[in-house]
Amino acid sequence: MNPTILFLDFDGVVADSMPAKTDAFIKAFEGCGFAPDAIGRLYRRFSGSGRDRIFTLVFEELAARAMTDAEHSRAQAIFARLETQATPGLALFPGVGDFLAHEATRRSLVLVTGTPAGVIDAILESLGIAGHFTAVYSATLNNPKERHMAEELEFTNVSAANALMVGDSLVDMEAAKAANVAFVGVGDPEFFAGGTAVAIIDNLPDIGARFDGAWQEKPG
Fold it and tell me: Domain range for residue 51?
């Protein structure tokens, strides 16, 4: 497999940001009576689907009712504040900077993230990797990742068979399936068990050696 377009999630794939964001998400729900472990588990489950959708889904799952506008605004504000505070300490995973610089000379790198546009743009600039991506898309409730991927494929006239998505969440895997794009998961194989991942890797740079060689069979 040697994709023309490589779609990448950001948190947990490019940057080691999930611990800080998970902590921020848990604190955003303080006072709601939810167990921190349950909040963290659901955040991991829905990560990448866009802020509005994540807050809504997690709250409805744990509270068994709809989230009010006031509750939504409060949670968003707390999360945004904590995310901003954590940004200066954000770092790429080992080897990712070199990987992106190398692969950007070989194929289109397209970021598809749940982080809002203004926020992700600033983060990419601060990390010095903004120039490696040909496009950056931010998923929202009305524009999920699969729609952004489909639009990019149509715009560039690239077949879905010539694209690959790398992500660390079930939302990423589901989005890739909806866009008919092959998916590689980053993380624990058990997390993606029974899904559509063609491979599971520990870190994004691990995928580089696979582009010009044979792919291992679907795990699980």
Answer: 18-88
